[in-house]
Design goal:
This protein is α/β, with parallel strands linked by helices. It is built from six helices and seven strands, in the order E-H-E-H-E-H-E-H-E-H-E-E-H. It has a seven-stranded mixed sheet, with helices on both faces. Bound molecules: glycinamide ribonucleotide. This is Phosphoribosylglycinamide formyltransferase. It comes from candidate division WOR-1 bacterium RIFOXYB2_FULL_37_13.
Length: 192
């Protein structure tokens, strides 16, 4: 069975969606390791509740980004990871991880890419007075949220939306399309 490694920075609700889908057999793969760059990421607790190894790797313990990323790759390899899922991992992935996992690394982003890449995608949609926004699962490449798109889901942007209300509406869709995109990858139905 394919081993999945999940990289997080915070709440981990997308991680939870992946864990649930794996446990109920919707994804024929195992979440084998969760890595966070933040010590207080709630996602670490979620993983532990499901007996999934979960580690905090502190970027500040390393002299540069490459050595930090080498530690991440080493950890993923210990668990024989064949797919890396970024789930609210708020760091730009650099060349060390990409060299190892390009084509085997996917990300979820809270907009209909290529619209609103980068930080605060929901705020960008509101400021742009968009009528629709949504979520995207895509392969990770060298750019910021530029990799090939696997799945998208659309949601309306309502007139009185706040960043919170729009984020919640998008998140609901994220929790559906992320497990679905992982399933497509694991079943060999999408390739980089
Ligand atoms: C999600 O909305 C995800 O799409 C977004 O962060 C949130 C993480 O929530 N990711 C990005 O903005 C990446 N550029 P979660 O920790 O509850 O899954």
């Amino acid at each position: 069975m394919l081993n999945i490694g999940v990289l997080i920075s915070g709440r981990g609700s997308n991680l939870q969606a992946l864990i649930d889908a794996s446990e109920c057999g919707d994804i024929p793969a195992k979440i084998s390791i969760v890595i966070s760059n933040k010590s207080d990421a709630y996602g670490l607790e979620r993983a532990k509740k499901h007996n999934i190894p979960a580690v905090f790797i502190n970027p500040r313990d390393f002299s540069d980004k490459n050595s930090y990323e080498r530690k991440i790759v080493e950890t993923l390899k210990q668990y024989n990871v064949g797919l890396v899922c970024l789930a609210g991992y708020m760091k730009i992935v650099g060349e060390v991880i990409l060299t190892e996992y390009k084509g085997k690394m996917i990300n979820i982003h809270p907009s209909l890419l290529p619209k609103y890449p980068g930080l605060h995608a929901q705020k960008q949609a509101l400021e742009d007075k968009a009528k629709v926004s949504g979520a995207t699962v895509h392969f990770v490449d060298e750019g910021c949220d530029t990799g090939s798109i696997i799945l998208q889901a659309e949601v309306p942007v309502l007139e009185n939306d706040t960043e919170d209300s729009l984020s919640a509406r998008i998140l609901e869709q994220e929790h559906k399309i992320y497990p679905e995109a992982v399933r497509l990858f694991v079943e060999g139905k999408v390739k980089f």
